[in-house]
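Dear colleagues,

I hope this message finds you well. In preparation for our joint manuscript, I am sending the EamA domain-containing protein (candidate division Kazan bacterium GW2011_GWB1_52_7) sequence together with its predicted structure, so that both groups work from identical material. I would be grateful if you could confirm receipt.
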Amino acid sequence: MPVILLPIIAVVADASYMTIVKHFFRQYGRLTSREFNWLQFVGIVFVLLLTTPFFVRWPAIVQMQSVWQLLAGVVILATAANLLFYWAIEREKISEVEPFLLFNPLVAILIAGVFYSNERIWPVYLAAGVASLVLVWSHWRKHKLVLTRGLTAIVGFSLIYGLEASAIKTLLTVYDPIALYLIRSVFVLLALSLVAWPNFKIIKRHHLAIFGVLGALAVISVVAAYTAFQLRGLSETIFVFTLSPVLIYVLSVIFLRERWRTKNIIASLIITGLVVWVSLMK
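The corresponding structure tokens are as follows:
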């Protein structure tokens, strides 16, 4: 398989996942982000356990011990990111969240530049500044910036996303993508069980099949992304991820029939152009 297809596969799987997630919250309004988060990781771990015996080569114990602190940090970051992200998705329209998701790749590259000298590229910093102004403009309502609690949570998610991506790059020098995602997911599931225990009384049997599908899509998306991190590098892969919110935009219009504000569409186009420009400069 050509390496360039890996981030594209990740993007398609991620956009499909997000569209199903939004439909799920509409269809099953009683379930909160607590139940959703917990069940999705059950689905992810289930799918990973099915695939692990066939594809995983575990590193030596000494290698795993050398990065256990970084792995613990990733688990903490991933738990916080999931809590923030799905809490926001539960409350906001995709059309409102989408411009902020477009901004994620730029944030991730900026943060990566702090930890990796070869990621410090001046066009990224310039584009991030312009994108910040565009985002403020797109959410300016009646002479004031409208930043709801949900969108504030997405901003926090963006920062955590960048930190985790930088840490993942180092961990992939020790772990295979599937092995790393399995360990990450198991410990995130345990952490969620401690800090966000679901209400099982409102979980029904027919919910479980959906989480099997979501688990499979999440595994495809993340494992493809991790593999691309190894083979293509962090910057090149993350820049391709800007296509995911754009694809979510198309799917939400077709399947969810959401109404989009002109400012959000313009902001998305400008930020997409910025990411493409930075990618070409790279």
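For the figure legend, we might mention the following. Residues 5-281 form one domain. The mean pLDDT is 82.

With kind regards,
E.M.
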